Amino acid sequence: MAILGSLIKKEVLHIVRDPRTMVITILMPVVLLLLFGFAISTEVNDVRIAAVVDRHTDETRNLLEKIRVNHYFTFLGLTSENEVEYLLRSGKADAILILRTDETRLKGEIVADASNPTNAQSVATYIMGVINNGVSSSPVLTYTLYNPQMKSSYNFVPGIMGMIFILICAIMTSVSIVREKENGTMNLLLVSPIKPATIILGKLIPYFLLSCIILLIMMLISYTLLGLPVSVTIIDVVLVSLLYIVLSLSFGLLVSTIADSQLTALIGSAVILMLPVIMLSGMIFPIDNMPVFLQFISCVIPARWYIEAMRKLMIQQLDFSFIYQEIIILFSMTILLMSLSICKFYSSQKK
Amino acid sequence: MKKCDKVISVKDLTKKFGNFTAVDHITFDVQKGEIFGFLGANGAGKTTAMKMLCGLSRPSSGSATVANYDISTQGEEVKRHIGYMSQKFSLYEGLRVDENIKLFSTIYGMTDDMIKSASDRLYKSLNMEGMKKTLVKDLPVGWKQKLAFAVSTIHNPEVVFLDEPTGGVDPVTRRKFWELIYKASEEGMTVFVTTHYLDEAEYCNRVSIMVDGKISALDSPKALKEKFNVATMDEVFRIVAKDAIRED
To answer: Which residues of chain B make contact with A10, given a CB cutoff of 8 A?
Structure first.
């Protein structure tokens, strides 16, 4: 026990004395969360809109007033029809609303800048929404459940958490173990009477603690700044995250038993872990839209199941009984990886 | 030097990697308090042999005892009774001098009182009292080497294995380092040392020269020089190792 304690202390001192890594480790999750939460946002704010009206009626005035008071829009004012192209081309406006009154019927036209198609679509939908709201006949009603304002700020939270833990746990653990191999200090530990299990725990526990701190920071940001709804599911979120942290740590251990140099460990974990996590876990691209082959591959990526579970817990606010499947898969993966890496660790020492 | 008992006893020790026999049936004994030089060209198998004796690697066949414990069956006990310092400088660079001492003495199961007295003795003998709080990476190379040796023997092991301990160090520092080795040997510690520097071989009580996985010569430096009728160990080595097939 004293030995384990001193190994953990050694590791903590190493982490704390490397301020650069420390800052990156703590700042990266924060920056990513804020970046995805606020800066990179698929919701469209502040749509600059101008209007062309050929005849002012109560109806048009009513409509323009609605746009003017809607805080999603910035109303640029009225313009003439030949200005339309100039405004859009110069980027001064995102969309132009053209209102024509033909006899007594009002006909609306929306011209949107589709250089960013996603944006244009959202803008058009917004404007339609506003117009339709005024005209009582709106045949199709769309309800978006769980995230009624279509806020993207916290949609990214599960994905980022899935990525960060793989990054911190796997890369940092593997690099720190391989560094000891490179420096020769690993041999010092192995010729000493320490049991291999103690060496492994002495590596895993400090990074587990570090990950817990990061989890705390990320949850604080998500539930306060990003406005994720607070409920009892938080407990489940923590539990599932802890499971995922252990899984990522085992991944790191496995990489470290294979890699011989810090560079290999870094590239190994980055390529093997990062790319699939970003591309195939459903973090950014929906899994259902992937080719069947890639959907199949995504099944073996732990982050996929973690992110799915997190979405259900954090955004849908479902309870534990809805994520049994994910839990079972993550748990089996953890057991598998853990035993694999421990076997490899032992056998590589006993050549 | 007391010739009382064998601290290391090796019989037909062999290590194979696939078809390649790195260490080929080596047999030798090392007496208590002896400084035993283990020479050989690169790739001759000395590091592999040493790793087996330290429990870092398992022999393919043959047997050996270190401090009267069998390396194949009593690995844990062997590890408790040896010290090890490797080729590369081996302490935690990111830790302070006192933290390194504390860490390694805790690993070897020493109690706080023992650690305190052992480290006080260490600071005094190495004259390092003013450097306790220095990070190891900020120490000059010579100091690091001396500290590494002191730390590897802090638990007072019966045998200390030194794997090319003076690699990349200037002659003056090497000389000082050997003074530490002599001192340890006088106190009854057995020193098993591999080296590339043949002038260092002269300092050993006995040396063995490994060629292609086998021990080709084993005796005191004086006897070896007489046998081959040459003046230095360097020449002895050239004669013994001239038939070596293996290269790096």
So the answer is: 92, 95, 99, 103
